[in-house]
Amino acid sequence: MTEESGRPRVRVEFPAMTAGGKAAAATGKAAALGGEATLGGIVARATEAAALRPVDGVALVTIDRREALNAIDRATMEQLLEALERLDDDPTCRCMVITGVGDRAFAAGADILEMSEQTAASIAASGGFERWDRIARIATPLIAAVKGYALGGGCELAMTCDMIVAAADAVFGLPEVRLGVMPGAGGTQRLLRAMGKAKAMELILTGRNLPAVEAEAHGLVSLLVPRAEVVACALALAETIAAMPPLAVRAAVQAIDQAAELPLSEGLAAERKAFNALFETEDQKEGMRAFLEKRPADWKGR
Ligand code: CO8
After folding, report:
1. Rounded Cα–Cα distance for residues 264 and 51 (Å)
2. Which of 90, 195, 234, 275 is close enough to 165 for a disulfide, judged by CB 3.0 to 4.6 Å?
3. Domains of the chain by range and CATH?
4. From the CA of 149, how far away is ligand 1's center (Å)?
5. Which residues are catalytic?
6. Which tens digits make up the pLDDT trace of 1-47?
7. Which string of b and e fits 205-222 if b means at least 16 CB within 10 Å?
8. What is the dihedral sign for C-alpha 20, 44, 84, 229?
C-alpha cells in the first residue's frame, strides 16, 4: 500500500448549493465550495464560486485517503475527531455531513495494515475506543453521505451518525469475522438496534456485503438516492435541519439516542424532562408566536 506523507486525511468545507436551492442541489451540483469562508475557524477555499450560495450552518467533512479506500487509520480518526469536535463547539454549525472522497468508498474499514500488528494490550492502550466514543457524543446532528463501500469501521462510523443518506449502489457490511476478529466500534450493538437480531446475526457471522437497497429496506438508511446526488441530498437534508431551532433539534437527537439505551419508562421520563425544558427557551416562545402570527420564526438558539 502506498503510504501517504503528512497530507491531511480529513477535509472540512463550508459547502454551497446552486442558486436554485434544494432542487438544484439534488441534481448533484452542490458539493462545491462557495467562496473562501470560515466555519469553526477552519478556512475553506473556493473551488467554484459562480452561481453558488452557502449552505447556512452546514459543514461538509470529507475523509480523504483515496489510495486506501478511505480506510480509517489512527491519524485519520484523530483528524476526524478534531474536526467534528471543533465544529460541534461552533454555534454557527448546526448540522454536519460526513463523506468519503471519491465514489469507491465512504470508508472501507479501520486500517487493516495498522491493526495487523496490534495486541490486545496495545489496542486497549491506543485510545482508539475512546475516540469512537467521543464521536458518538457529538451533539450536532451528523449525516453520513455514503457512496461505495462502508465496511467494518466505515459502516460503524456511518451507524454512529444520526442518519445515513446512501447511494443506491452503495455497499454496507461488517466483514470483521473474515479477518479473525469481530466488529469493535459499536457494530454489534448498533446493527442490532437498527435492523434487529435476525439480520445482525446473519450479517455479522457471515461478513457478507449488504447492498444499500437491502440496508434501506431494513431501516439502516434514511434516504436512498442516485450516486451522483448523494452529497447534494445529504447537504439539502442538512440545510433543512440547520434551519430548525438548534436547542429543540439537539434535545430531540439526545432523546432518540436514549431510546436505544433506556427502558421505555425511563426514556419517556427523559423525553418529558427535555420537552418541559424547551418551554424555558426563547425559541419555544418565538416558534409558537410565529405560528400564530403566520410568519416565519426567527430562531435564536436560546
Ligand atoms: N485497511 C487498509 N487498506 C485498505 C482497506 C482497509 N480496511 N480497504 C482497502 N484498502 C486498500 C487496499 O489494501 C488497496 O491498497 P493497495 O492498492 O495499496 O493494494 C486499496 O485500498 C484498494 O483496495 P482493493 O485493491 O482491495 O480494492 P477492491 O476494489 O479490489 O476491493 C474492498 C474493495 C472489497 C473494499 C476491499 O478493499 C476490502 O475487502 N477491504 C477491506 C474491508 C474490511 O475488511 N474492512 C473491515 C476492517 S476491520 C475494522 O474495520 C474494525 C473496526 C473496529 C475498530 C475499533 C478500533 C478501536
Report:
1. 49
2. 234
3. 3-242 (3.90.226.10), 246-293 (1.10.12.10)
4. 9
5. 110, 153, 156, 176
6. 444 667 889 999 887 776 544 433 333 333 333 333 333 333 333 33
7. eebeebbbebbbebebbb
8. positive
